Amino acid sequence: MEILAFGVQSDEKPLIEKAFQGRHDIRCLDVFLTEDTAPIAAGHEVISSSVNATLDKRVLQILADGGTRMIAQRSTGFNNIDLRVAERLGLTVARVSYYSPYSVAEFAWTLAMAVNRRIVRASNRTRDFDFRLDGLMGRDLRGRTVGVLGTGKIGEAFARIAHGFGMRLLGWDARENPACRELGMQYVERERLFAEADLISLHVPLLPSTQHLIGAAALRMMKDDAILVNSSRGGLVDTEALVAELRAGRFTGVGLDVYEAEAGLFFLDKSLDTVTDDTLARLMTFPNVVVTSHQAYYTEDAVGQIVDTTLRNVQDYVAGRRNENVLVPAAPTDG
C-alpha cells in the first residue's frame, strides 16, 4: 500500500521515510491538503495530513470520492477536521494524541524570555554593530506571578519551569492537575488570573468554548506590563483586539507561535508576496511582539514521536484495530 503524506517539511521527510521503510511505501509531498490539492490523493486508501491541513466538507468529499478511507493526521489538535462529515462518509480519522510536552512548553518559555529580555531587538542591533542598551531592559521573573491557562501535560511542563524560576503559580482549567497543585499552583477564576499574572501562557485546545478566550474583555483585565504567550492555537486570541491594545501601548511583550488566520501562510515562503493580511502586517510592526511560524512542537524528539504514532495508527487501521488515537472509526471493531 502506498500512503500519501501531505505538508511534509524537509526536516520531517527523512524521519517519515525511515519509520515507514519496510512497512509501507510512502510518498511525501510538501504541498498542504486543501480543496485544490485533495484530488492528488485519488487512488490512495490512506493519506496523512499536517496540522495546517483543511479538512472541511468539500475536501473530505473529494478524498472519499477518490477512494481514501483513512486519514492519519500528524498533530494533536483536530479543530481543522469536520468529524461529522468524516463519519458520514465512512472515513477513519486518527490523530497523534500525545508527543513530548516539553517541546511546546520549552518553546513557550523561549518566547516569554525573548520578549522579556528583548532578544530579537538586541540581536538585530548587534548585527549592525550597535551595542547600546537603550530600550533593552527586562525584568527578573523570580517572585513574579505566572498564569497558566490549561494545565494538562504541556501546561504542567510549563508550570514546572516556572516553579524552577521561583514564580508564584496561578492556574485555570476545567479539571485541576494534582501535579500542578504539588508545585504550589493555586487554581483561580480566569478574571483573577488575568488581573494578577505578570506572564500568561495559553495551553488549552481550540474548541467553540475557547474560541477568542483572550478577547477584548480579557485583554483589558490584564496588567499593562503583562507578557502574553500563545503556543497552542491561534483562534484562542482575538488578534484584532490584541492589536488594538498594543496600539494603546500596553503589554511588555507578546509571543505568538500561532495565529488565527495562519492557514495558507505558516510553513510557506511568502517573502516575495504582497502581504494581504492587514492584521498580521500590523502585528509585525510592534517591537515588543515576536511571531514564529507554529514551530513549538518542532524538535527531533517530538517529531519522532509524531511519526512513530502516525505509523502505528496506519498499521492498526490496516490490521482492523482501533487504538486510542482514533477520532472517527469507519466501522466498529473489536481491536
TrEMBL record:
<dbReference type="GO" id="GO:0008720">
    <property type="term" value="F:D-lactate dehydrogenase (NAD+) activity"/>
</dbReference>
<dbReference type="GO" id="GO:0051287">
    <property type="term" value="F:NAD binding"/>
</dbReference>
<keyword id="KW-0560">Oxidoreductase</keyword>
<feature type="domain" description="D-isomer specific 2-hydroxyacid dehydrogenase catalytic">
    <location>
        <begin position="8"/>
        <end position="327"/>
    </location>
</feature>
<dbReference type="Pfam" id="PF02826">
    <property type="entry name" value="2-Hacid_dh_C"/>
</dbReference>
<protein>
    <submittedName>
        <fullName>Hydroxyacid dehydrogenase</fullName>
    </submittedName>
</protein>
<comment type="similarity">
    <text>Belongs to the D-isomer specific 2-hydroxyacid dehydrogenase family.</text>
</comment>
<dbReference type="InterPro" id="IPR036291">
    <property type="entry name" value="NAD(P)-bd_dom_sf"/>
</dbReference>
<dbReference type="InterPro" id="IPR029752">
    <property type="entry name" value="D-isomer_DH_CS1"/>
</dbReference>
<feature type="domain" description="D-isomer specific 2-hydroxyacid dehydrogenase NAD-binding">
    <location>
        <begin position="110"/>
        <end position="296"/>
    </location>
</feature>
<dbReference type="InterPro" id="IPR006139">
    <property type="entry name" value="D-isomer_2_OHA_DH_cat_dom"/>
</dbReference>
<dbReference type="InterPro" id="IPR058205">
    <property type="entry name" value="D-LDH-like"/>
</dbReference>
<dbReference type="Pfam" id="PF00389">
    <property type="entry name" value="2-Hacid_dh"/>
</dbReference>
<dbReference type="InterPro" id="IPR029753">
    <property type="entry name" value="D-isomer_DH_CS"/>
</dbReference>
<dbReference type="InterPro" id="IPR006140">
    <property type="entry name" value="D-isomer_DH_NAD-bd"/>
</dbReference>
<keyword id="KW-0520">NAD</keyword>
